[in-house]
Amino acid sequence: PPSPQPLPHWILTNCPGPPTGAPNMRAVFLVCLALALEVRAAQEVVDCEADPENMLCCPLEAGQTCLLEGFIRSNTPCSAACKKRYQSLGYDCYKGYKDNFMWDIMQKNCDPLRVVEFKAPSTSYKPQYGGAAIVAANSSSTISGLRALLMAMLLASASVVAGRA
Fold first, then answer.
1. For residue 126, which of 115, 134, 114, 117 has the smallest C-alpha distance?
2. Which of 19, 39, 118, 158 has its CA at 20 to 30 Å from residue 87's CA atom?
3. Alpha helices in the chain (DSSP H)
4. Rg of the chain over CA atoms, in angstroms?
5. HSE toward the beta carbon, residue 86, CA cutoff 13 A
6. Any bridge partners for residue 125, and if so which?
């Protein structure tokens, strides 16, 4: 995997200039800085020669978060790294891709005994007044999705505030 960009470079290319006086621009800059730190944390670098069984040594298909790279033939071997990566994909991936031919190949080659179970998150509370249930967010993809949603909402609200100034 490519090494992550230095954090200052990421900020300079993706965030507005440093805050200058206006409180709303400071908010936009702080939100962007928080997002930059989140992106940096997600860009973990692994030495696959030293640790070939690390799940990050099994790349995903370009633009995908649920499909392992190269699983297009039934005889595609599944390395130890890919077995670990497959196990970590979670229920959301299973639900969205269980009927995909690549998922089928991944499952047959990385979990031939079907030991891995992808279980739906459990509902922890349902109010009596007919409101929506609160679902436990127990998968890493759900937590990542919630972080991304939060950042998008913060950026959108900051840009609205910046537009009013």
1. 134
2. 39
3. 7-14, 23-42, 80-87, 91-97, 101-110, 140-164
4. 20
5. 26
6. 134
How many whole angstroms separate alpha carbon 44 and alpha carbon 139?
19
Cross-strand pairs, 135: 123
- Classified as helix, coil or strand, 134 is strand
For residue range 149-162, list pLDDT tens digits in order: 556 666 666 555 55
Given a cut of 80, whether residue 61 has pLDDT beyond it is yes
- Tokens 């939060």 identify what position? 150
Residues in the chain: 165
Give the pair of three-digit tokens for residue 75.
């005889």
Flag the least confident range among 19-23, 80-84, 98-102: 19-23
